[in-house]
Amino acid sequence: MINLNVALGQRSYPILIGSGLLHRQGVLDTFINGRDVLIVTNDHLAMLYLEPLQKLITGSRIEKIILPDGEASKTPDTLMTIFDALVEYRYARDCVLLALGGGVVGDICGFAAASWQRGVDFIQVPTTLLAQVDSSVGGKTAVNHPGGKNLIGAFHQPLCVLSDTDTLYTLPDRELSAGLAEVVKYGLLGDAELFEWLEREHAGLLKRDAERLQHIVRRSCEIKAQVVAADEQERGQRALLNLGHTFGHAIERCAGYGEWLHGEAIAAGMCMAAAFSARIGWLDAADVERIKVLFIRLNLPVEPPQIDPGKFLAAMSLDKKVMAGEIRLVLLRSIGDAAVTADYPSHELVDLLSEQFIH
Asked: Rounded to whole angstroms, what are the CA distances from 342 to 119, 214, 251, 325, 330?
C-alpha cells in the first residue's frame, strides 16, 4: 500500500493507494472508531462496492443514501436529500460521512459534510480514475448551479482518501479516458517528464496495466498534495490546477451537464488553452500539436462542441477565477510550465472563440 501525506498541519491526512484496499480489514478503523457513518454513493457503485465497504466498518451504525448517477444530479436539490437523511437518522456532530464514488459523489458528499452542523468529518473512497488522481484530494467540495459549475461550495478536507485501484477495472472505457485528461494536466502544468511518460505509455494505460495505473495515481497525488499543502485555498499557485478548466467548465455548462464527461470537457479545454497560449506568443505550435496528439491517442476530444461564441464567453465570465471583471486563464509557456494570467489582449480571446466555433 502506498501512503502519501497531504501536509496541512492539524488537518493533514493520508492518501492510501493500492490494490484490494476495499477488502483490507482494519484500514478505516483509525478514522471511524465506532462513530455513526453515512455512506453516500450512487446506484451503480452501490451494486459493485457497497457490500465490501460496509464490511470494513465495524462497531458503527451504518446508514446509506443512494444518489442518481451523473453530473446532472450534482445540484442543491440532491444535496438536500443528504441533509434530509442526516435529520431522519438523527446524526450528530460526531458522525462521519463517507463518499463512495467518483467526482460527483465526492464533491456533493464533501459539501454536505462541510455544511452539516457547521462541519463534520468525511472520508473519500474514490472509484474512478478522475477522482483518484484529482477530485478526491485537496478538499474542494461543491454543487453546480444553472449559472455555472461548482459555484456553491466550500473547502473541507477529508480525514483520509482510500483509493483501491482495483475499482478502475470496472470503469467504462470512456470514463477511464476522461480520468487520463487530468493526468495529462499534471504533466502540462509542472512535470514534463510525466507528459513524456504518457506519450510513451498511453497504450498500456488504456489496457489497464496495473503497474502503470498505480504509477499515475501516485504521481498525480504527489503533485496535487504538494500544491495543496502550499496553497490550500487557491490564493496563488493552486490556481494552476485549473489548467483548461475555464474553457472546460464553459463547455460543460453550454453543452448541458452530463452531455460531456468532465475529463472530456477539460481535455478540449486544455487544447483551447494551448491554442490561445500559442496565439499570444507563449507556446510553440509544435507543442500545441503534441498536446492534441496525446489526447487523441487517449481517445479524448480536442475540439469543443459547436456553441455560440457569445454564450461561451458569458459562461467563461462566471468562472471562479474571474477577478475585477477580468477572466484569468491558466496558460502554457511550454509543456511543464504554466502560469495564471489576465494579461492578454481581450480581443484575441474573442477571436479565438469565433474561430473555434465556426467551421
From this structure: 35, 36, 20, 10, 9
Read off the pLDDT of residues 312-339 as tens digits, 9 standing for 90 and up.
998 898 776 777 678 889 999 999 999 9
**In which region does residue 336 sit, left (phi positive, over 0), alpha (psi from -120 to 50) or beta (all else)?**
left
Number of H helices, E strands in the chain: 14, 11
Q: Which residue is associated with the grid cell 458503527? A: 60
* Domain range enclosing 297: 182-356
pTM, two decimal places: 0.93
Q: Indicate the number of domains in the chain.
A: 2
Q: Say if residue 152 is in the same domain as residue 209.
A: no
3-class DSSP state of 125: strand
Q: Does residue 177 lie within any of the structural domains?
A: no
10 and 53 fall within a common domain? yes
Rounded to the nearest 5°, which phi and psi values hold at 235? -95, -5
CATH code, domain carrying 147: 3.40.50.1970
- Tens of pLDDT along 226-247? 999 998 888 788 889 999 999 9
Which tens digit of pLDDT belongs to each residue from 62-82? 999 999 888 888 999 999 999
Residue 211 is assigned to a structural domain of this protein: yes
Domain identity same for 33 and 108: yes
How far apart, in whole angstroms, are the C-alpha atoms of residue 36 and residue 59? Answer: 9
Residue partners of 300: CB distance under 8 A and separation at least 6: 177, 178, 180, 181, 263, 264, 267, 268
Report CA-CA distances (Å) from 181 to 110, 188, 199, 238. 23, 11, 13, 18
Give the span between the Cα atoms of 200 and 176, in whole angstroms: 18
End-to-end CA distance of the chain: 50
Q: Measured between alpha carbons, how far is 35 from 94 in angstroms, rounded to an integer?
A: 7
Q: Which residues pair with 121 in a beta bridge?
A: 96
Catalytic residues: 118, 140, 182, 224, 234, 238, 242, 245, 249, 262
